Amino acid sequence: IIVPECVNSCSGFLKGAVNALANILEVRGLAKSFGHTSVLNNIDLDVQEGSVLCLIGASGSGKSTLLRCLNFLELKDSGTIRIRGEAIEAKTHNLNKIRQKMGMVFQHFYLFPHKTVLENVIEAPIQVKGKNKDDAVNEGNMLLEKVGLAEKADEYPSTLSGGQKQRVAIARALAMQPEIMLFDEPTSALDPELVGEVLETMKDLAREGMTMIVVTHEMGFAKEVADETMYMHNGEIIERNDSATFFASPKEERTKEFLSKVL
Ligand code: ADP
Ligand code: MG
Fold first, then answer.
1. How many Cβ atoms from other residues are within 10 Å of residue 96's Cβ?
2. Which ligand is nearest to the CA of 62?
3. 224 CA to middle of ligand 1, Å?
4. Which ligand is nearest the CA of 35, by number?
């Protein structure tokens, strides 16, 4: 009798430990209001290391605010955000360090217009991380190669297409060696013919095992690339499932209604 009990409790404990290790991000009860407007309401979210989570939902449902709370561009009102098991609080943690763990890519690129493509990529590693210039340049060139823009290193952003700009923005985020990449509608500002090249770059990243949270209206990408897809409505997570099940048989009425409009 003693032996099976021990095995049980041990395996339970080990399972817990493995889960804790596998979840790079754990959010519990996250809430955020702007004035009297509640924008995020009791959000629970687990993200496994190396997985891709797509976040979909109508405009105004709180997707951007959620991403911004995750990397502390907005401060949550309540709830906990754990990274690798460690609860992160604005009071006790250096938020600049935390933000370095989370690369963020925005709809509107935000490249420095007066810097070349390579200078855009090496700026933060040198200024924020104190990397020496030669190393930063070597890594920057490698990252530009990775996003297919090695030959644009010395060009200025204004000479690039939107898709190329966004790939530079991705390289720039990667240059900080983030543990998680957050994408907020990275292709929404692009002409349709330029969307594919950015999604391909993101797919490559996913294949390499980067942990990614992607807010997107590209349902094809969510279906094909995301391990899980999550639907948000009015600041709440309505439904979350592995992407195949999510799209093949959504369970909640509100999810069905949303998907019927966008698919
Ligand atoms: P989504 O990205 O899904 O379109 P957002 O997170 O941008 O949604 O916005 C959710 C709600 O929060 C919206 O009603 C928006 O107007 C409001 N909101 C977002 N940021 C702010 C802010 N800084 N101040 C006040 N209201 C905001
Ligand atoms: Mg948004």
1. 9
2. 1
3. 28
4. 1
Q: Are 155 and 120 in contact (CB under 8 A)?
A: no
pLDDT of 14: 54
> pLDDT tens, 108-147?
999 999 999 999 999 999 999 999 999 999 999 999 999 9
Closest protein CA for atom 26 of ligand 1? 34
- Angle at 243 (CA atoms; ends 238, 246), nearest 5 degrees: 45
Residue 99: is its pLDDT beyond 50? yes
Tokens of 216: 């997107």
Handedness of CA 232, 234, 235, 236 (dihedral sign): negative
**pLDDT surpasses 90 at 50:** yes
- Say what the ipTM of the complex is: 0.98
CB of 39 closer than 6 A to ligand 1?
A: yes
Instruction: Indicate which atom in ligand 1 lies nearest the CA of residue 35.
Output: 25
CA separation for the pair 99, 237 (Å, rounded): 24
Alpha helix stretches (DSSP H) within the chain: 2-22, 63-70, 95-101, 117-127, 133-146, 162-174, 192-207, 219-225, 243-248, 253-262
Rounded distance, CA 13 to CA 17, Å? 6
Segment 199-241, tens digit of pLDDT: 999 999 999 999 999 999 999 999 999 999 999 999 999 999 9
Pocket lining: 235 vs ligand 1, CB cutoff 6 Å: no
CA pair distance 143, 168, nearest whole angstrom: 9
